[in-house]
Amino acid sequence: MSDYATLLREHTTLTCRSVDRLFLQGYVPQLQSVGQVCRFLRWQRRFPIPSSAAFGKFGDSYVKDVHRFAEVNKIPVVYFKKGENKEAEARPLIDAAAAEGGDGKVVLIGIAQEKASVWRSWPTKGQEKAAHPHMEWGRQMGFVNHFYLYIWDLEWGPAFIKTNAYAPWPIWIYLNGHEWAKAQCDKAGISYESLDNGFRSCAEPKKLQAICDRLGSGAVHSFFWRWCHRLPSLFTPSDLRHGYVYELAFRQFEVSDTRVFDRPQAGRAFFEGLIRDHLDIGRPDRVAMIFERKVSSRTPGAFRTKVITRGVDPQVCCYYKSSRLKQYLILCSQRKKCSRHEDGYFVDMSLTHRPRGPNAWFRPRPGAVREPVPADRGAVDFPAGDG
């Protein structure tokens, strides 16, 4: 049997390393503590008594703005049921928008009730009937309506932004680096054959890799602010000028390294050898090499290797704290967009990092500059990037 080097050198038709899925959360730093919330309500919005009732007025107005936006732009509004496949509902509309072209559009607004942490206030005990009661504040969990705004974007292709109408008004953003790379290839006139999430082949693989290497945080921020200016917002131009601006943090970050083999036997031989030689990949000494971290007897977390076999396509997973290294082999015919490639295999090795909790988030901020924005939106500081 050929060794790894021979298989990779002589039997691969495409190698591509790229940022894969990105899941980000946007938060407003100036609305994360009780003092900041009271300052916002009392001095920015001029409410005589800072209370969550004021937030309720903002939320009601935002909900009306979203429905008005959908009506004006003829965007369908769907109420998702529990367990419903949201992407399946949006995918045909996204594909239709991509075929139509343009500068991007919202194709669907979905509404789903989900759990979220929201600011609540209540009168201090004994002051329930006072004319100007002192209010106690706290964050509480509640089931609230979330808006899923499914988007086809000229630069990123399929994406969605999730919001809700409850303070501190977090947002969530889903993007895909492979889709961004496909859009750049289309612009450059580079022909390629697409997988459902990746590339099956490319006429100019070196240019493809250069495009993937170019993706940086600047492209993420450009997407965010481009749609902030087009979508309904809870913040006024005055709020933006006074620093009530979102910052972005990663919740999930994936990087994939894909090898496309010229025939199924080569892919199978490569992966069978990989499983045999890497069953101990989850041991502390191997984890220290993979993740470039010092591991001692006091390092928290479980160290394990997991081999999963569903049908005939196994996976090897290595876990370390919030990170996961996953290696798997997929027959191209199992991809719905590549069913015609019945003789092709590819291996996708993706490193997924899921920071847990606000203290573990890291922000894609290589630098900070002032970005010009329309006068009616106010001046906003946000970071620049290399994409």
Structure description:
- With 387 residues, the chain is of the alpha+beta class.
- The protein has a domain at 31-168.
- It has helices at 4-10, 34-44, 52-72, 86-100, 177-188, 205-214, 217-228, 237-241, 264-277, 284-291, and strands at 12-27, 77-79, 105-123, 135-153, 157-164, 171-176, 192-195, 198-202, 247-261, 304-310, 313-320, 323-331, 345-353, 367-371, 380-384.
What does the main sheet amount to? 11 strands, mixed
What best-fitting shape do the alpha-carbon axes yield? elongated
The secondary-structure element order is HEHHEHEEEEHEEHHHEHHEEEEEE
Strand order within the widest beta sheet: 2-3-4-5-6-1-9-13-12-11-10
Low-confidence stretches: 284-292, 304-309, 332-387
Topology:
Blueprint: H1 4-10, E1 12-27, H2 34-44, H3 52-72, E2 77-79, H4 86-100, E3 105-123, E4 135-153, E5 157-164, E6 171-176, H5 177-188, E7 192-195, E8 198-202, H6 205-214, H7 217-228, H8 237-241, E9 247-261, H9 264-277, H10 284-291, E10 304-310, E11 313-320, E12 323-331, E13 345-353, E14 367-371, E15 380-384
Parallel strand pairs: 2-3
Antiparallel strand pairs: 1-6, 1-9, 3-4, 4-5, 5-6, 7-8, 9-13, 10-11, 11-12, 12-13, 14-15
Write a compact overview of the structure shown.
This protein has 387 residues and is of the alpha+beta class. It has ten helices and 15 strands.
Defining key terms:
387 residues; alpha+beta; 11-stranded mixed β-sheet; two-stranded antiparallel ribbon; 10 helices; 36% strand; disordered C terminus
